[in-house]
Design a protein that fits this description.
alpha/beta, binds S-adenosylmethionine, seven-stranded mixed β-sheet
Length: 212
């Protein structure tokens, strides 16, 4: 994600009704925000939020929360949502490491990880959103039967992610190294911004779905 300082982005986020600015206060009560009991799916590292808004438009009976650490990126999603006004989307600007402070046990039904930052140095492995440290955090907030779905074109990151699954006490439900040519897993696939960019260059897209 190319980062530019977008002047006024913090203010725009603070003012938006679609951004939850004190997310810790919402812990255990996220359903109240949406005013229904529908399942809640989150995307960690949503970037400009195209995927999550497309998903929300397609699935009005699911609530979506997009998480992004940079306000300069998140503000683009907020601007788009101000136009679309999808009732089932909210955004949180936060560092995903503290996700357990924001969501209660079992409050979330699915976690999407799309084209996560690779953190290629070994000493930064714990920062990868697919590391066992993060899987432990997702375990805390996911409901029984909840899943994590991860897509990337980065084969090294994907191989790391696959190797983390078992030691973390999870299991692989579905896996492909070429999503767009996998008829079953590609059915209903909604492309992310990065997915469109990298698949246009000819890069195969890897995907797994895991559960405990
Ligand atoms: N998911 C989008 C897509 O597929 O088009 C964006 C992918 S972009 C490479 C990764 C995004 O994740 C960046 O915007 C980055 O700021 C965000 N991100 C990475 N680590 C994060 C973390 N620990 N907490 C919150 N956001 C994070």
């Amino acid at each position: 994600m190319r980062l530019r300082n977008v002047p006024g982005s913090r203010e725009a986020i603070a003012e938006s009704i679609y951004a939850i600015n004190e997310p810790e206060k919402q812990k255990g009560n996220w359903k109240e925000i949406f005013g229904n009991n529908n399942p809640i799916h989150i995307e960690v590292g949503m970037g400009k939020g195209r995927f999550i808004m497309d998903m929300a438009a397609l699935n009005p009976d699911i609530n979506y929360i997009g998480i992004e650490k940079f306000s300069s990126v998140l503000v683009r999603g907020i601007q788009k949502q101000e136009e679309l006004q999808l009732p089932n989307v909210r955004f949180v600007r936060m560092e995903a490491e503290v996700i357990e402070d924001v969501f209660d046990k079992g409050e979330i039904d699915r976690v999407y990880l799309n084209f996560s930052d690779p953190w290629p140095k070994d000493r930064h492995a714990k920062r990868r959103l697919e590391s066992r440290e993060f899987l432990r955090r997702y375990d805390q907030i996911l409901a029984e039967g909840g899943t994590v779905e991860f897509k990337t074109d980065n084969r090294d990151l994907f191989d790391f992610a696959v190797e983390e699954v078992e030691p973390a006490g999870w299991k692989i439900d579905e896996l492909t190294y070429d999503l767009h040519h996998d008829e079953k897993m590609n059915e209903g696939n909604v492309m992310t911004e990065y997915e469109e960019r990298f698949s246009a260059k000819g890069n195969p897209i890897c995907k797994y779905i895991i559960s405990r």
